Amino acid sequence: MGSFDLSSIEDYVANHLRVFIFSIAGLIILVGIIAVSVFFIAVHGEEKTMVPDVTGKELTAALMELQVKELYPRLQLRYSQTSRDRGLILEQEPRPGTIVKAGRRIRLVVSQGVVLNKVESFITQNIDDARLDIQTINATAGGTPLLSIKEPIMYIYSTENPGTILEQKPEAGTEISGPITIEFVVSRGRENLSATVPQLTGSLAAALELISSSGINFQFTARERIGNERGETIVEQNPAANTRVQLNTPVNLTVTMPERLANNEVFGIYSYSIPQNPYPLAVRLEAILPSGERQRIITVNYSGGNFTVPYKLPAGSILVLSMLNRELHRETVE
């Protein structure tokens, strides 16, 4: 019989013992990982949240609301009945107010705008809104623009607010088989509208606020102070206060120069010729200071002509004139 090798048996047992120990340790670790995972899944699953109402809101705003609630979107696109719906949420599921687990996906139906095969009605819209709608329709359609507006537009006096579309040709419902030019008849507002000239002599800042709210036309000039006159004060106006004038009648205002200017400060009369419009449009003059801060100088409805406004600003400021939020002109104060 061969000799019995005790060391070989010991090595064999030791190796199997190590394998057994490592197996038990691995199993314990695996069970621990599973237990921790199950615990966190269970805890997360217990979190509840209420579905917000995002119907009718823009997609970006809706996504932000869902994010706050720890909900996630599932988007579907759909054409709607009007181009004004483009980018808005048409439907959502689950319904607003439903209590769901955090992490739930919410189905959002988003408008792609209109599949344009008929001319829609623009009557009662403001002409500026109609222009934006038509731009959106053409952008949605892609390729050759489907709709355009015949220029110049016909304006007539009416009892409707200025800028309101009264008639259109072709009429709403007309089939679109190719590019179409739409003719609009737009309200100019009431004929011979008048206003009472307010008392504008005195503080320049107060006068600018009154002009903004009264809707009158105006023209500024500046001169040096005389005698005891204060600086930056309106000392003359024509027509006089409480005079009844037509809205397009300019009120001439004389303002005095400042008594003193700080270092690097400039006083002047801003002047820019705005094209004549059929009715007053929203005009804004603001300054971008060297610090980057924006400062409003005046906001007023203005029909066109020479637009003049006094200013006192640090040199290097930028004056920005806008109409209907579209920049017309900018210049640097020197």
What can you tell me about this protein's structure?
The chain is of the alpha+beta class and 334 residues long. It has three domains: 49-114, Trypsin Inhibitor V, Chain A (2-Layer Sandwich), CATH 3.30.10.20; 127-189, Trypsin Inhibitor V, Chain A (2-Layer Sandwich), CATH 3.30.10; 194-332, Trypsin Inhibitor V, Chain A (2-Layer Sandwich). Helix content is 23%, strand content 39%. The chain has four helices and 21 strands.
SSE topology:
Elements: H1 6-45, E1 48-50, H2 59-68, E2 72-80, E3 89-93, E4 99-101, E5 105-114, H3 127-141, E6 147-149, E7 154-157, E8 165-169, E9 180-189, E10 194-196, E11 202-203, H4 204-214, E12 217-223, E13 233-238, E14 244-246, E15 250-256, E16 265-274, E17 281-288, E18 294-302, E19 305-314, E20 318-323, E21 326-332
Parallel strand pairs: 2-5, 6-9, 7-9, 12-15
Antiparallel strand pairs: 1-4, 3-5, 8-9, 10-14, 11-13, 13-15, 16-19, 17-18, 17-20, 20-21
